[in-house]
Amino acid sequence: MSLFFILYAVFVPDHAAATFGRMQLSATENAGWFYVMAVAGFLVFIVFLGVSRFGRIKLGTIFGVGSVSRFRGDPGECGPQLSF
User: Fold this and answer.
1) At what angle do helices 2-11 and 13-51 cross, to 10 degrees?
2) What is the distance between the alpha carbons of residues 26 and 20, in angstroms, rounded to a whole number?
3) CB contact set of 8 (below 8 Å; sequence gap of 6+)
4) What is the pLDDT of residue 44?
5) How many angstroms separate the CA atoms of 4 and 35, rounded?
6) pLDDT digit string, tens, across residues 3-40
7) Three-state SS annotation for the chain
8) What ranges do the domains of the chain cover?
9) pTM of this prediction?
């Protein structure tokens, strides 16, 4: 299916651009509300996980110690410290 769309866009670019433009316009006009609701639902779900008892689940082994601390550097410094 992807190969069809690629070949269509390569061999008939003007017609493909018009067709894809109409498809995008139709999707944004008819399903834009769905996208907004899906993102809002996902954010509510993430906040729920963070504040519920599930937010305290430790990821990793039972006795494992994190390899990266939450804070690095001088406590007076602001901003993230990146190390590679």
Assistant:
1) 140
2) 10
3) 16
4) 96
5) 27
6) 999 999 999 999 999 999 999 999 888 988 998 999 99
7) CHHHHHHHHHHCHHHHHHHHHHHHHHHHHHHHHHHHHHHHHHHHHHHHHHHCHHHHCCCCCCCCCCCCCCCCCCCCCCCCCCCC
8) 2-51
9) 0.46
In Å, how far are 49, 65, 78, 82, 84 from 75, measured between CA atoms? 29, 21, 8, 15, 20
φ and ψ at residue 14, rounded to 5 degrees: -65, -45
pLDDT band at 67 (very low <50, low <70, confident <90, very high): low
- Looking up tokens 């305290």 gives 56
- What pLDDT does 63 receive? 73
